[in-house]
């Protein structure tokens, strides 16, 4: 077993232990916050698969979160579906939408793809307003039962763990290599026999599915209430920033990125001199600028540099 | 008795005394969260940023009123601490912020939170935790009707369907043969307003010759206005949120339609909106709406105690709002009025208020006169009446692009 693998396993075990023991130390309110970190972890993980590993930019993942979130709300509201069951359902439905979006997106790249996904972010929540009778419109739609803080914490982190494993398995295998080759050079990838349309669409689908599950949990964290304003454009931007802070193309920095976007609003709610109304926005902006200047490869990049320090040098390069 | 038994008896006696004393001590000091002998802490969520941020003057005015009350000794010696949190009208932020208020700040009550969706996202949680959710800033009627399932929740302002009913009564009595055209938002908000109108019209509901709806996502309502005009309507009723209401007024003028009466729902009747419509070419003279608060710009109301009090409180405790007040931003008076009602209920909740005694005081108001409410309005609540204000005065716009609302007629009752 390689030393790197051993280190990874130890880190994972420690992280798992922390996650399991934490709820015994935290009160309900903080459990809710910790669950929020897990939710954004899942979403940023999904986005990273698309943007970091496959090189397809998306400023529209809030739309896939909306799809997952509304799936949970609608199924629970009308059919009293078990909340836990709505998660895999959201995964599948969001995957489907991701593939549907991925197909026309094959024609776009760079700025144009960004704009197309941005259009998605703007338009998808509006469907709830248009078909207000079914989706509740601006008065939202409520699940039939609401979970406790503890339930949310356990399910969010369990989902995060499961999906992390799924991401790891997908990315270390053939699919992951195909994704990376597409990111590095589409022409070279195609020349090497990678069927671009299939893998690009697959990347969109998987990425959307992750965001869908995150969206379901997001709605459950909002007392089971789904409403268009929860999935505004800023959410999609937040996810992209979270992915950038995490470091595109690496799974490890994702936790830092998730902590950043999940906890920043709470931590920066009252900023001296700026005041509570805009403190959050200013701090967010400053940190983004700071990270881009100092750590352009995000936290994962920092981890890389630490690994490259003498004494911690390893023979294998990060894949 | 032996030495041992005596010691045992004495020990038991001491234990009993200690137990009683402790229970008495806890019993005497057991108070609801957020209340101490010198302060009472409340909080609410408001759109200080985001698309609905024009309402941020409401919590600022409420805080000014509480500061004024605190300077005059507070309520039964307790100063009111009011935590204003920004949820940007996003329920995903309203929920954690409200949980923070309840579980971290441990507020006595959630006061004045703004918005239907934000309040719908938290009323289950608040009622489950028996936290008062009071005098919330929204005109939907859920809070008034659902008192059995959500007994800790109560609104303040007259509700939209009740207001629609008043327009119906007004039209039925003053224009019994008028042909009515209704523009309404195609969701619960607009539909409830329209339903209220039909109830108020009663036997005259057949006077509605056309009802056109628009999607909340549509900002262009030209098609609907043309359809109403083509149907021969000579009364235009607009149940829309500000953007579409202003657009409707402008469009009606631009297509050359001059209905004999135009009614605009109160939610879009802030003086600033009518000025904006006029600035864009709408003919706003004669437009009708309702009011339930005093006006800071109507010269005929300048000597009302509420108007003078508003001016003095804002001038002293919220000078940044003075300009808004002078321009007729109704949100400032709204905030003062809601805060006044909160203080009234707190004053009547006993010397050591509990959440239960506070709710009881709020739900047993009998002909209470809030100085910031329009003259003659009396607030009434009971175990079965969860609507504090159910009266409105009609007002008509005069003076064109630099004009103002002028109240007319008698006070209308939307009482159920």
Keywords:
heterodimer, A: 319 residues, mainly alpha, 2 strands, 75% helix, globular, disordered C terminus, B: alpha/beta, Rossmann fold, 3 domains, 43% helix
Could you explain how this protein is built, in words?
Chain A contains 14 helices and 2 strands, in the order ααααααβααααβαααα. Chain A has 319 residues and is mainly alpha-helical. Chain A has a two-stranded antiparallel sheet. In chain A, helix 2 (28-53) packs across helix 12. The radius of gyration of chain A is 19 Å and the shape is globular. Chain B folds into 3 domains: 1-30; 39-158 and 306-385, Rossmann fold (3-Layer(aba) Sandwich), CATH 3.40.50; 161-291 and 394-413, Rossmann fold (3-Layer(aba) Sandwich). Helices cover 43% and strands 17% of the residues of chain B. In chain B, strands 7-6-8-9-10-11-12 form a 7-stranded mixed β-sheet, sandwiched between helices. In chain B, strand 3, helix 4 and strand 4 form a beta-alpha-beta unit. In chain B, helix 2 packs across helix 13 (330-347). Classes of the chains: A mainly alpha (319), B alpha/beta (416). Chains A and B meet through helix 2, helix 5 and helix 13 of A and strand 2, helix 3 and helix 4 of B.
Radius of gyration of chain B: 25 Å
User: CATH homologous superfamily of the largest domain in chain B?
Assistant: Response regulator
Widest beta sheet: strand line-up of chain B:
7-6-8-9-10-11-12
Number of DSSP E strands of chain A: 2
> What is the approximate shape of chain A?
globular
Cα-based radius of gyration of chain A, to the nearest Å: 19 Å
Provide the β-strand percentage band of chain B. Answer: 15-25%
Number of helices of chain B: 14
How many domains would you count in the coordinates of chain B?
3
Overall form of chain B = elongated
Termini of chain A, distance in Å? 17 Å
Task: Report the count of strand segments of chain B.
Answer: 12
CATH top level assignment of the largest domain in chain B: Alpha Beta
Biggest interchain interface, per-side counts: A-B, 33 and 32 residues
The quaternary organization reads as: heterodimer
Major sheet summary line of chain B: 7 strands, mixed
């Amino acid at each position: 077993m390689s030393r790197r693998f051993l280190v990874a396993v130890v880190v994972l075990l420690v992280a798992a232990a922390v996650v399991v023991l934490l709820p015994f130390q935290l009160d309900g309110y903080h459990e809710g916050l910790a669950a929020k970190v897990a939710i954004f972890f899942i979403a940023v993980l999904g986005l990273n698969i698309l943007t970091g590993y496959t090189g397809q930019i998306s400023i529209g993942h809030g739309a896939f979160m909306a799809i997952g979130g509304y799936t949970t709300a609608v199924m629970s509201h009308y059919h009293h579906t078990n909340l836990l069951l709505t998660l895999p359902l959201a995964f599948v439905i969001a995957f489907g939408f991701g593939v549907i979006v991925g197909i026309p997106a094959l024609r776009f790249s760079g700025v144009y793809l960004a704009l197309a996904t941005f259009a998605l972010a703007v338009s998808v929540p509006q469907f709830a307003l248009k078909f207000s009778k079914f989706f509740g419109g601006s008065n939202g739609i409520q699940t039939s039962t609401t979970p406790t803080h503890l339930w949310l914490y356990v399910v969010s982190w369990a989902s995060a763990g499961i999906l992390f494993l799924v991401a790891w398995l997908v990315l270390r295998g053939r699919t992951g290599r195909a994704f990376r080759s597409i990111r590095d050079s589409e022409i070279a990838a195609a020349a090497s026999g990678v069927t671009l349309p299939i893998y690009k669409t697959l990347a969109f689908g998987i990425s959307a599915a992750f965001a869908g599950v995150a969206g379901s949990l997001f709605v459950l964290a909002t007392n089971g209430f789904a409403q268009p304003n929860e999935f505004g454009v800023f959410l999609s931007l937040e996810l992209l920033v979270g992915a950038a802070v995490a470091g595109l193309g690496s799974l490890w920095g994702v936790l830092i990125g998730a902590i950043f976007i999940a906890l920043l609003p709470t931590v920066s709610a009252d900023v001296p001199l700026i005041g509570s109304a805009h403190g959050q926005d200013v701090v967010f902006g400053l940190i983004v600028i700071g990270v881009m200047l100092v750590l352009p490869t995000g936290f994962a990049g920092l981890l890389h540099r630490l690994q490259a320090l003498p004494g911690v040098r390893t023979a294998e390069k990060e894949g | 008795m032996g030495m041992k038994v005596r010691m045992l008896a004495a020990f038991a006696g001491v234990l009993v005394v200690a137990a009683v004393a402790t229970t008495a001590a806890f019993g005497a000091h057991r108070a609801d969260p957020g209340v101490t002998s010198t302060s009472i802490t409340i909080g609410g969520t408001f759109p200080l940023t985001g698309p609905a941020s024009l309402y941020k003057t409401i919590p600022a005015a409420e805080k000014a009123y509480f500061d004024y009350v605190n300077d005059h000794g507070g309520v039964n010696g307790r100063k009111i601490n009011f935590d204003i949190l920004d949820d940007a009208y996003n329920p995903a932020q309203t929920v954690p912020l409200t949980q923070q208020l309840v579980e971290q700040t441990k507020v006595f009550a959630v006061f004045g939170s703004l918005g239907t969706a934000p309040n719908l996202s938290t009323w289950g949680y608040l009622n489950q935790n028996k936290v008062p959710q009071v005098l919330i800033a929204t005109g939907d009627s859920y809070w008034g009707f659902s008192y059995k399932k959500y007994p800790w929740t109560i609104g303040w302002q007259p509700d939209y369907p009740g207001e629609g009913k008043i327009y119906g009564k007004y039209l039925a009595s003053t224009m019994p043969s008028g042909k009515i055209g209704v523009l309404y938002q195609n969701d619960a908000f607009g539909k409830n307003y329209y339903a209220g109108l039909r109830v108020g019209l009663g036997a005259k509901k057949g006077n509605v010759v056309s009802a056109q709806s628009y999607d909340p996502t549509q900002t262009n309502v030209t098609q609907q206005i043309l359809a109403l005009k083509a149907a021969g309507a000579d009364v235009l009723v607009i149940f829309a949120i500000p953007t579409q209401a202003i657009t409707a007024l402008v469009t009606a003028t631009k297509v050359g339609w001059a209905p004999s009466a135009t009614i605009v729902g109160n939610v879009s009747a802030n003086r600033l909106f009518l000025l904006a419509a006029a600035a864009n070419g709408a003919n706003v003279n004669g437009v009708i709406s309702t009011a339930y608060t005093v006006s800071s710009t109507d010269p005929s109301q300048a000597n009302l105690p509420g108007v003078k009090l508003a001016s003095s409180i804002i001038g002293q405790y919220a000078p940044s709002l003075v300009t808004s007040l002078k321009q007729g931003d109704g949100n400032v008076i709204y905030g003062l009025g809601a805060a006044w009602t909160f203080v009234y209920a707190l004053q009547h909740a006993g010397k050591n208020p509990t959440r239960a005694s506070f709710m009881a005081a709020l739900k047993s108001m009998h002909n209470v006169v809030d100085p910031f409410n329009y003259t003659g309005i009396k607030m009434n609540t009971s175990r079965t009446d969860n609507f504090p204000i159910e009266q409105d005065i009609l007002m008509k716009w005069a003076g064109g692009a630099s004009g103002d609302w002028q109240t007319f007629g008698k006070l209308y009752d939307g009482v159920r």
